[in-house]
Amino acid sequence: MYRHAYQNGNAAYPLGGSGTFSIQPHKFQPRSHPLKRRRQLMTRLGIVGTLFCIIVFFFFPNLRPGGTSFGLFSSPEDSQIETVRYYDLSNVQGTARGWEREERILLCAPLRDAAPHLPMFFGHLKNLTYPHNLIDLAFLVGDSKDNTITLLKELLEDLRQNPDPKMQFGEMSILEKDFGQKVNQDVESRHGFAAQAGRRKSMAQARNWLLSAALRPTHSWVYWRDVDVETAPFTILEDLMRHNKDVIVPNVWRPLPDWLGGEQPYDLNSWQESETALALADTLDEDAVIVEGYAEYATWRPHLAYLRDPYGDPDMEMEIDGVGGVSILAKAKVFRSGVHFPAFSFEKHAETEGFGKMAKRMGFSVVGLPHYTIWHLYEPSVDDIRHMEEMEQEKKKKEEEEKAKKERMDKIKDTFDTPSRQWEEDKSKLQNLAQDAKKVADEPKKQVVQPDKIVEARGEEPEAKVEK
Ligand SMILES: *[C@@H]1O[C@H](CO)[C@@H](O)[C@H](O)[C@H]1NC(C)=O
């Protein structure tokens, strides 16, 4: 049912290959040739086509038969009709129990210098409980200086060769495009205020390119997921889907080292609109982009992140206007209707926040779950790293001091070893003496238990002491 990518000689390259399998479409238009040449050509094409099919079927077992549309490689008579595909889009609207209706999800992940996180991300993919064969994967790799692409290909290949049929995902696409992002990818530069508007606009473009290339008429849902999520429920797709909203996001926090308080709200881009923010927006230039979560814009918006109660009902919903991009489940119809990630100032917002606003503006439901939390990876900031180094040094210094102190004490003990043994002997002698004396002192006291002698006993006590 879902053989889109590698048919009809279009220019998608099979994973890991060069252009070996790509057959140019113009070679398949023999209509103007004389009959003889045509027959020759068809024979050649037949051979090439058969070879191609064998190779494709060998590498992509999930493309195997039961199908309609290998028109160009079968007989010329039905080539025309079978390349026509029919889709009823009313069947892919998205429902609350998509896994029962076999609704397909397009899982989109924009990647930039993401190699360190990819293995963890694939761990998450494998753990998803939503039927994997209903999940298509699409990655956009842009502006990366590390080996993201190479590693991604390897991991996808591993996934594809996994013998467990439950581990077979649907279509997997890697799209590559740079957007000229010059901001450094380190935590400081990425999260600095000055970099935000530009960064958000090129992120928006990346998302739009990715989605427009990967969204098929068969998709009911689109799930956006960042690679640097550390912990998330395996059932997250079903959990979000059950709410049957057009756009829905969980709460996103991150764990912190103990000395920083243990945990912290992470994604501040999911929020509800406020009067203050609207008034602020009115004062800004048309092209201005408000980025949430920075002191520079005091918007006083209720943030999804701050409303979290660890013991709250995870199903509780909150209407929101801006959404964060760490983990968004949206019905595909939202995008089909024209809602996208604005790479310009839409109502003074861009990217996912602008997406939330645009969806809302078009009448779609946009919801956040304040008590359903996933955890973003903690990446220490430059300050944190400095602080941790200081703490480490302090610890070392303390340890060294302790060690020096202990050595000093040992030395002192050594020096006074003999006298101290002497002292021990003296002490035990003294103790013996004291015990003897106590025995003597105790004897008269035994009379004390006899009531009629109480007075007497009291009288005797000082005498006993004097005797010693
Ligand atoms: C996937 O599940 C296994 C088994 O429960 C677990 O050990 C592993 O940490 C999970 N991976 C991720 C990335 O959560």
From TrEMBL:
Its main location: Golgi. Residues 390-468 are annotated as: Disordered. The keyword S-adenosyl-L-methionine does not apply. The keyword Membrane applies. It is found in: Golgi apparatus membrane. One of its GO terms (molecular function) is alpha-1,6-mannosyltransferase activity. Belongs to the ANP1/MMN9/VAN1 family. This is Anp1-domain-containing protein. The lineage of its organism: Eukaryota, Fungi, Dikarya, Ascomycota, Pezizomycotina.
